[in-house]
Amino acid sequence: xxxxxxxxxxxxxxxxxxxxxxxxxxxxxxxxxxxxxxxxxxxxxxxxxxxxxxxxxxxxxxxxxxxxxxxxxxxxxxxxxxxxxxxxxxxxxxxxxxxxxxxxxxxxxxxxxxxxxxxxxxxxxxxxxxxxxxxxxxxxxxxxxxxxxxxxx
Length: 153
Fold this sequence. Notes:
153 residues
C-alpha cells in the first residue's frame, strides 16, 4: 500500500503542478491582453476612422480623445443647465417688473385724481358753497380788505 499511496500522492502533486501551470499561463495571457488593449498604436489625439456608422453606432464615444474629454463635456452640460436656469429666473423677474410698473402707473393716476379733487375742494369759493349748502355755519365773507399790522421795535 505504500507504493499505491506514493503513486496517488505523486499523481496529486503532478495534478497540482499542472493546475498551477495552467493558472500562470492564463494570468500571463490576461496580462498580455490588458497590455495589448492599453498599449494600442492609436495616436492619443486621434479619433480613429470617423464614419457615419461609427457616429450613429456610438463607437466614436469610445475613442481615447472622447474618453479624455468626458470631464469637459460634463462641465459644458453643467454650464448649459445653469444658463437655462438663469434665463428662466431673469424672465420671471422681467414679468414681475412689468406688472409692478403697470400697478405703479395705476396708483399714480389715483393719486393725481385725489390730489386734484382735494385742490378743487379747498378753494375758497368751494368752501363757501359747501357752507351755504349745509346752512349750519355762521361764517361770512369779509367785507374789509386785509391790512398789515406794523410792529415797532
